[in-house]
Write a structure and sequence with these properties.
single chain, mainly alpha, 5 helices, 85% helix, elongated
Length: 102
């Protein structure tokens, strides 16, 4: 077995491990739950307002969670759109809860 075949086998194994990690993460918390955790963390770090800075923290954190092979296919723009949709859902849920309490 030459080094080329060995490299291909190692690359395939790394890709399988990355996919298994993604599946584990989705099963464990779910991508949305992970995004919500990062949104809450950013809110605690920065506080109210500063929406763009908080979004940057969430996008960077979500990017770091993804394994390197997956990052080749998922752009920061995709992650940003996903994080914005989760943020809107959380905001709508909180606004709805506040209306019920009034």
């Amino acid at each position: 077995m030459n080094s080329t075949y060995l490299s291909i086998i190692i690359l395939c194994l790394a890709l399988l491990i990355a996919v298994a990690y993604i599946i584990y993460m989705v099963k464990k918390d779910g991508i949305r739950a992970t995004a919500i955790k990062f949104i809450v963390k950013a809110e605690k770090i920065i506080g109210s307002g500063h929406g763009e800075a908080k979004m940057d923290i969430v996008i960077d954190a979500l990017t770091e969670v993804l394994p390197a092979p997956i990052r080749l296919f998922v752009t920061k723009e995709n992650i940003k759109r996903f994080a914005e949709s989760v943020f809107r859902e959380v905001k709508d849920a909180l606004d709805y809860k506040q209306k019920d309490n009034v």
